[in-house]
Amino acid sequence: MNTQPCAAVVGTGFIGPVHVEALKRAGVQVTGILGSSPAKSVAAAQSLGLPRGYQSFDEVLADETVDAVHLTTPNRFHFEQAAACLRSGKHVMCEKPLAMNSAQSQELVQLARQSGLAAGVAYNIRFYPLCHEAAARARTADFGDCLHITGSYVQDWLLKPTDYNWRVIAEDGGELRAVADIGTHWLDLVQFVTGLHVQSVCADLQTVHATRQRPTGETRSFSHSNDAATHPVSITTEDAGCILLKFSDLSRGSLHVSQTTAGRKNCLRFEIAGSGQSLAWDSQQPNSLWIGHRDRPSETLIRDPALMSPSAAQVTSYPGGHNEGFPDTFKQLFRTFYASIEAHDFGPSQKYPMFIDGHREILLCEAILQSHRQQAWVDVDRFED
Amino acid sequence: MNTQPCAAVVGTGFIGPVHVEALKRAGVQVTGILGSSPAKSVAAAQSLGLPRGYQSFDEVLADETVDAVHLTTPNRFHFEQAAACLRSGKHVMCEKPLAMNSAQSQELVQLARQSGLAAGVAYNIRFYPLCHEAAARARTADFGDCLHITGSYVQDWLLKPTDYNWRVIAEDGGELRAVADIGTHWLDLVQFVTGLHVQSVCADLQTVHATRQRPTGETRSFSHSNDAATHPVSITTEDAGCILLKFSDLSRGSLHVSQTTAGRKNCLRFEIAGSGQSLAWDSQQPNSLWIGHRDRPSETLIRDPALMSPSAAQVTSYPGGHNEGFPDTFKQLFRTFYASIEAHDFGPSQKYPMFIDGHREILLCEAILQSHRQQAWVDVDRFED
Amino acid sequence: MNTQPCAAVVGTGFIGPVHVEALKRAGVQVTGILGSSPAKSVAAAQSLGLPRGYQSFDEVLADETVDAVHLTTPNRFHFEQAAACLRSGKHVMCEKPLAMNSAQSQELVQLARQSGLAAGVAYNIRFYPLCHEAAARARTADFGDCLHITGSYVQDWLLKPTDYNWRVIAEDGGELRAVADIGTHWLDLVQFVTGLHVQSVCADLQTVHATRQRPTGETRSFSHSNDAATHPVSITTEDAGCILLKFSDLSRGSLHVSQTTAGRKNCLRFEIAGSGQSLAWDSQQPNSLWIGHRDRPSETLIRDPALMSPSAAQVTSYPGGHNEGFPDTFKQLFRTFYASIEAHDFGPSQKYPMFIDGHREILLCEAILQSHRQQAWVDVDRFED
Amino acid sequence: MNTQPCAAVVGTGFIGPVHVEALKRAGVQVTGILGSSPAKSVAAAQSLGLPRGYQSFDEVLADETVDAVHLTTPNRFHFEQAAACLRSGKHVMCEKPLAMNSAQSQELVQLARQSGLAAGVAYNIRFYPLCHEAAARARTADFGDCLHITGSYVQDWLLKPTDYNWRVIAEDGGELRAVADIGTHWLDLVQFVTGLHVQSVCADLQTVHATRQRPTGETRSFSHSNDAATHPVSITTEDAGCILLKFSDLSRGSLHVSQTTAGRKNCLRFEIAGSGQSLAWDSQQPNSLWIGHRDRPSETLIRDPALMSPSAAQVTSYPGGHNEGFPDTFKQLFRTFYASIEAHDFGPSQKYPMFIDGHREILLCEAILQSHRQQAWVDVDRFED
């Protein structure tokens, strides 16, 4: 009898190996990996110490030992592959974005509901333990009502016109880039923390470099090589942008995203003001949560299971002062995902980000793009539940 | 012969005594102070060690020993008093806002130009030495082109519905409050640092408390007393807001202001991304300037005249590591203001904030208010030069 | 043929499972685990998803599939078990301290040298990538000569007289506690970073609580339970202490250790001043290295393989801004350890901490204890090479 | 009638003008200043806007309008000048060190007691409001018993062998330099905060540069000029050092001082662990006090009179979030000093640092020097009360 769940990983770029390692840590057996060619599959399997490099996506679906499939492929494959997984009876953990448009993502939501399978989207940042802690505190009387939610997600890896990655091309990554790639992480996170939904947006986006130099060969995310031959390509996706937000209660806020801020490597910050206290967090110091007070000194909570809410303590593995980081978020996300699978719990309310969360982000992106093009406020379409 | 310049201060609230002390430090003789009643004038003169408590504003204007008048009165008196000073041949340093609307402030700009007198607005934050340093660096090739300018100015002293101050009432402080009181400091600062002007705004403002409890007696800024009798008053001014910004080049940005963020006592932050490097500063740690780099470690410049640009070194008085703070900004502002006076330099380009800067902020406020009401982008009217 | 190395883990406390997970991440197959009883072995194997719970230490040694043994047992077992592993032809990775005294540890060093096997001590903190980076930078001309080395390692988990753990009892943990448990991590680290050795010490130690309440049952590290029955026990091990240091060149320094500093969960800090620049690091923000300069702004290097020395980039797995933490240090330590094993490199100079490093720490502890008792400077005995 | 107290300042180096400005802010009239020559006196008076440049020290003493004299001369003049002031019936505020040795300082203590005059030493760092706050909190039950006191005072202005100042020469500055110049500030501060006294010391000092290049002309503190002609001089004073400390209760601690730590401009840090909570402060961020807790999140108190103890609120002038800095400490010190004078309170217990505090620091320095020379623990001689 197979008691340990088994997963296959599709995709061998930056994030595929992150899934592989986190699955091992979460106690999930990884059956193998699929790359963009059989040779790449075999090479990845070997370097990651996995038993099998798959020949094709169909081979993954046909592998009866596979309980769940992790999709870490380029964005444009997500819809088709996720649908195929569900239709093949495989649980699926899909990297964001869930699909290329909301028609696709809505279809996936319905497919997932009918499937009786687990269907998650890898919004891993929720799984920094102190983000769970913030969510627990945002629901307390001490926090009070939410007043405003502001912050940013900024990086610098696309600062120069010579920086290039498939994501900058609308056809490959989607019409939105910075908002879709990193802004949606922020939007998912603050909605997770507060329990509120964004209802209207007013966006203004910037394409800092209308032309970038594309290397002849391939490139990986977060890497720069200077010696390759290049040719200019026109860029229509945004490098940066600012967005005003109205939430489902009376809360208001704003988000700034940028992939062109020198010195900020990968920096997500939020500041959520409640009527009783504030909560602020910075992904570059993820083991600290700032709790702002008016009438007494503000607090800094160091990630310490002994001092955290039960829901947050549950997604941390190490004692106070023993820093956890980016790879740990995937471990905790997958522990949560597979705990539901092992419990045969496929209900509509899960502790991991579900397809409906991925769909919501795509609706948000579409509203943001429309808002930018119209230079006006746009309501986010509500998902017909 | 009286070589040392002499100043009178009008206003005895929080900021009047700040001016008095800074004038002494700047080597300016303070002739006396005027309060809202002769008795208050005398009491203030005594507690501040000044030779004279003026009986009336006219008495100030009539005092021939007075070279310059500092206006720290409630906002609604600024226009009339500033005009009277200029007409009486007195230099004037006016607290912000310069006036209650742009018709008034435009009139003051013209009056100042014709007067051949020094006419400044007390945007003191520019005079944190590292803000001058940021301005110097923003003009270098290393910084490059400005890409985006984001930040916030947040406080918590009006968090609770029982917090009250004359500024919350539109009739006394103006229709805008948080934006006008603190947002304009941020807007002035980033325009000073970058040399750019805001051209269009899209604002969304929040009145968190539509009703506040007004104490029967008077209250001072930044103070809370809980035991006074109160009665409810309706509030129309904003407690918080978010604003999208378009600058005079292609730069974009956003500003968040709030007087209802628990734990942020008086926190102005900016992050300015250039094509070569970034600059970030936080008024709660004013002696550090962050300089962000893509291809080498980012830097933190501790305020140290030995390491700063000449223009910044000129507005600092103490060696590296010897912190300067809020009161020092007024000292440096006044040193700069009176250096121009002593040099008989009343030309159109000064190192201190001039009436035109104050006017620009009022135009900005009017555009922001209109934008909020229309929930749309609004262009800032250009000053007809 | 089994190309992937195989390891067994001995010990099921806090740190045993840390080894198990890090071994999986490092691509090492974990054959099984041994606890203090067969039942505990089976339970740990099950919860960690390992194929086997060993019945006895002899069974581990007899398992021919085991290439290496990880010892995470209480300190008093290390000597005997490490020796047994080497005599059985198993590579060994031993938790610190290597032994209970320097006679034992010296014997182990010789045994390891004769064995032709890999023999490491788990000084994991070296494997924070920025500690490797500091080591690389400390060897540059820009850093210059080392002048002084200061810092601390402070925690709060033994602050109260009701806090208890087997380590507080000299018979179980050794005569030294705070110095041995955490001080040796700091001492190993700064010697690794600078390449210098401590030659003389002058120590003053404190036993804050001469009596502690011992629970009747067992306790785990970093956990507090308040409801168990307790009885008082006398404590002779130190809760805190300060130590003056003389290094093998002219460098001087000091170290403060404490397990009784409220609010410091697990905080190791060093500040190393060179004649050209300084290096400072804080384990609570392990992804930042401060580089101090005299004549230009100081720098903060965010852990980013693109900006780090090759030796440091080699022990990091994620791009800049994607935080790594405590568990990643074990992964990198084990990657380094098993890379040597796979390369059949068992020479005297390894990139992982060797038995001689463990021995050196024990000599240091003995000198520190003697210095404290004599209240005088004591030379650290040199290892006869 | 002259109700406002009047002070003369002796010394025109870095710190003399600091006193002048702070006296003005404290509402004290400055009668004039004395430099090392009549010409320097006049120049300083002019640049500082003071009515008078004194011709000689005797002229200062003879000036009947002078109530108090501030001594900011080189160390070797302090004893003689302070004694002369007291004998002339002038209150005296002396820069540290109070004298060149403990025989002198003890004589001054007795002279001060007999004089019925105010006699203070300018340990200004106590007057950072959050240092007063720490002192208030260290006396609470929440803090509990003091366990250990550690920290450092580090600078970089004497890092290079070409850095020179009169203080490096034993004849001018005293046999101890870094310890005397900055270490005594730290020692005074932690004794003020905790109410404890250092009883025994074990010191190890370093002269990093045994030879320095002395410019032919004069130099000022904290300044570097590279183009002057120089000649080598031998240096016997210490650039750095570490000291173990035993306090009057059971507390232990350590201090590190350095004037050769690149990047630390003027950085005093302490960490004081109590049995209930900890207190930590860094002079480079003086408006924040860290309060460490074991069983709840640690706190950061932003300097805010509304949240501080009465004794601390009394020495702050600005609301929360409006940073105060180095110059403000002198203002608060002098406000405190002159408040006692105005109240004719010359009793043995004052809120400002008294001559006995200055004497205690000299005893400490003598013990530290002896300890270093003997490489052994030395008891601090007790003042015969």
Automatic annotation (TrEMBL), chains A, B, C, D:
GO terms for molecular function: 1,5-anhydro-D-fructose reductase (1,5-anhydro-D-mannitol-forming) activity; nucleotide binding. It holds the Pfam family GFO_IDH_MocA_C3. Its EC number is 1.1.1.292. Residues 138-279 form the GFO/IDH/MocA-like oxidoreductase domain. This is 1,5-anhydro-D-fructose reductase. InterPro entries: Gfo/Idh/MocA-like_OxRdtase_N (IPR000683), Gfo/Idh/MocA_oxidrdct_glycsds (IPR050463), GFO_IDH_MocA-like_dom (IPR055170), NAD(P)-bd_dom_sf (IPR036291). Residues 8-122 form the Gfo/Idh/MocA-like oxidoreductase N-terminal domain. It is an enzyme of class 1 (oxidoreductase). Keywords: Oxidoreductase. The keyword Oxidoreductase applies. It comes from the Bacteria.
